[in-house]
Amino acid sequence: MKSLRLLLLLLVWPLLTGCEHKQARAKVPSPPGLPTDRTATAKSTPSHQPHSTRGEYGTVIVETSKPIRTEMGLASWYGPPYHNRRGANGEIYDMNGMTAAHRTLPLNSIVRVTNVRTGNSAIVRITDRGPFIGERMLDLSLAAAKAVDVWAPGTAWVKMDVLESPEPLDTGGKWAVQIGAFDTLQAATKMKESLINRYHPARVLEFSGPTGEWVRVRVQNDDRELAEQISRSISTAQGGVFLVRLD
Q1: Which residue in 10, 29, 97, 116 has a CA-CA distance of 20 to 30 Å to 128?
Q2: Where are the alpha helices (DSSP H) in the chain?
C-alpha cells in the first residue's frame, strides 16, 4: 500500500509544480506613464522674442533698451557717391547696411532712430561723420532711411537714443573744425591759408571729398572747448562750419 501511495505521489508532483511555474509567469500590466508638465513646456517656449542686435562690445541691444542720451533733430540719408568708399571708422561704407553718420558721437556707437511722425524705428551703428549740411543731425544709410521712413521724403524729424558707446560721451575725444564743401580748390586753399595765419600752431588740412573741397582745423591737445571757440569765430560764404569728433 505504501508503495502504491509513493508511486501516485511521484506521478502527480510534476503536474503540481508545472501549475505553479505558469502562475509565476503571469503577465503583469506596465505602470502608467508620468503626467506631462504642460506649464513648464509653455514657459520654455516664449511666444514673442523682441528685436535685438549685438552691440560692438558684446552687449545685447533690444528695442526697449534704456538710452544713455537722447537727441532730437533732422535726419537725412546718403548713398551714392559715398557707397563703397571708406568711412570715418575705417570700414567700407555699404549703403545697404544699417549704419549712420553723426558729427560728434564716438564712432561705433549704437543708436536707435525713431521717426517722430510715423513711429517707425531702427537700430544702427555710427560708422561715419556727417551730415555737413545746415543743422541736420544724422545721415542714415539707404537701408536705415527706408526702415524709418526718411528715404522717400529725403529728410524727417527723428529721435535718436544712444544705447551703447565705446567711449565717454562728455569727456575725451579727438576734436576738429571742418569747413566746406567748397566748389573749387582755389577757394579751399584760400580758406586754409587764412586759418593757418589766424590759428597757428593749429594743424590745418585741405582735402577733397565726393561733394567738393574741404578744410579741417585740428586743434592742439584735442581741446573740445578750443575747437568750439574756433568754429564760432569762422564764417564762410561757401558751405558751413562744423564741430567734428574724429574718433
Answers
A1: 116
A2: 2-24, 38-44, 142-147, 185-198, 224-233
> Residue ranges per domain, the chain?
52-164, 175-245
Q: Which bin fits 214, alpha (ψ -120 to 50), beta or left (φ > 0)?
A: beta
Q: Which long-range contacts (CB under 8 A, 24 or more apart) does 195-204 make?
A: 195/234, 199/230, 202/230
pLDDT reported for residue 64: 66
Cα of first residue to Cα of last residue in the chain, in angstroms, is: 120
The fourth-level CATH superfamily of domain 52-164 is RlpA-like domain (2.40.40.10)
Tell me the three cell numbers of residue 37.
508638465
Interatomic CA distance for residues 229 and 180, integer angstroms: 18
Q: 10 has which bridge partners?
A: none
Beta strands per DSSP E along 41-189: 52-54, 60-62, 69-77, 99-101, 110-115, 121-128, 138-140, 156-164, 175-182
Q: Tell me the pTM.
A: 0.73
Task: Flag the least confident range among 29-38, 55-64, 156-165, 217-226.
Answer: 29-38
